[in-house]
Amino acid sequence: MATQRFTKHNAAIIQTGVALLKARNADALLVLLDGSTDWKRIAEIASEVEKPIIVAVDSPDDLEGASEAGLKALALNKEKAPLLERLQHALLEAAADEFIRTNGEIVAVYSGFHQGRLDSISHLQLDERMRRLTTRDLQMLESRVPLPTIKAVIDLAAQIGREGREGKPVGTLFVVGDTRKVLEHSNDSGVDPFRGYNRKSRNLLDAKVQDDAKEIAQLDGAFVVGSDAVIERSRQMLEVSHEDLTMTKGLGARHWAAAAISRKTKAISVVVSQSTGTVRLYQDGHLVMRIEPMDKAVTWQEFAFEPPSSNQAES
Ligand SMILES: Nc1ncnc2c1ncn2[C@@H]1O[C@H](COP(=O)(O)OP(=O)(O)OP(=O)(O)O)[C@@H](O)[C@H]1O
């Protein structure tokens, strides 16, 4: 369990965050921490404002007592991720949990320079960062698959695209939602390592299961994932006709299969290219999102700051 000492200094920074929250009449204060702290003291400092005070740490264990103190608690599961990624993820999680509006104004307090020492305050206009990501893209996808599931899969796919496995690039495919129909078009390509495991041990919201999936991603075939983020099957070869589909030149069988299954069913395909690490999302046979394999923090931001052109063609 990680802790972050509630020093006078940290208290003063949070106080300043609260003052900025008031001065700007912002919607919420986000305190990004490196571990558990004195939640009651944070609640006391913020007691003069009736706005959500969101506390985000990496592990759910470190949040014990936070909700009881009247704070909105978020577990990020992003221990080794760079600051910007954690911050961006916290904002997305806060929006997904409806602690904040996707076009709200947030004051964020965090350790920008030294771990364990709150030293930075940002005032963020969320519509600039998140409107496209949540309202247009993610909400469009959410009509098919719940936001936490699709975010977990996108995050995992982006990680696989960025890191590969043991220095080698890895490509893979997740077909999310409409499982029953998807399975009508798929066949085992080998022994499914997830077969026989209980649902909890196949749930992609769990960090350990994400690790297992990274390992299995190196093998042939696709993951078939339910709306609840549970892997129903892995190592599936999809058999769907891709007549009439249009795709960018240079994309191979995996991408065609991804687009085709998304047209044939209500599933969303999330595909990682082995050759480039790029993550592409297909819905109804069309490319709806593309994430380049640069630093993930930058990726989410670019993604939000630079919407793809309206015809969604690849460039
Ligand atoms: N129909 C399919 N269903 C599931 N997986 C598939 C299917 N077709 C190909 N794959 C997987 O994709 C892998 C790579 O195929 P290919 O190189 O043609 O894909 P690609 O779209 O060019 O992707 P990448 O950019 O990753 O190379 C195959 O080894 C296989 O594991």
Automatic annotation (TrEMBL):
<keyword id="KW-0067">ATP-binding</keyword>
<dbReference type="InterPro" id="IPR003390">
    <property type="entry name" value="DNA_integrity_scan_DisA_N"/>
</dbReference>
<dbReference type="InterPro" id="IPR036888">
    <property type="entry name" value="DNA_integrity_DisA_N_sf"/>
</dbReference>
<keyword id="KW-0808">Transferase</keyword>
<protein>
    <submittedName>
        <fullName>DNA integrity scanning protein DisA</fullName>
        <ecNumber>2.7.7.85</ecNumber>
    </submittedName>
</protein>
<dbReference type="Pfam" id="PF02457">
    <property type="entry name" value="DAC"/>
</dbReference>
<dbReference type="InterPro" id="IPR048544">
    <property type="entry name" value="DacZ_P"/>
</dbReference>
<keyword id="KW-0547">Nucleotide-binding</keyword>
<feature type="domain" description="DAC">
    <location>
        <begin position="127"/>
        <end position="293"/>
    </location>
</feature>
<dbReference type="GO" id="GO:0106408">
    <property type="term" value="F:diadenylate cyclase activity"/>
</dbReference>
<dbReference type="InterPro" id="IPR050338">
    <property type="entry name" value="DisA"/>
</dbReference>
<dbReference type="GO" id="GO:0005524">
    <property type="term" value="F:ATP binding"/>
</dbReference>
<keyword id="KW-0548">Nucleotidyltransferase</keyword>
<dbReference type="Pfam" id="PF21755">
    <property type="entry name" value="DacZ_P"/>
</dbReference>
<dbReference type="GO" id="GO:0004016">
    <property type="term" value="F:adenylate cyclase activity"/>
</dbReference>
<dbReference type="InterPro" id="IPR014499">
    <property type="entry name" value="DAC_DacZ"/>
</dbReference>
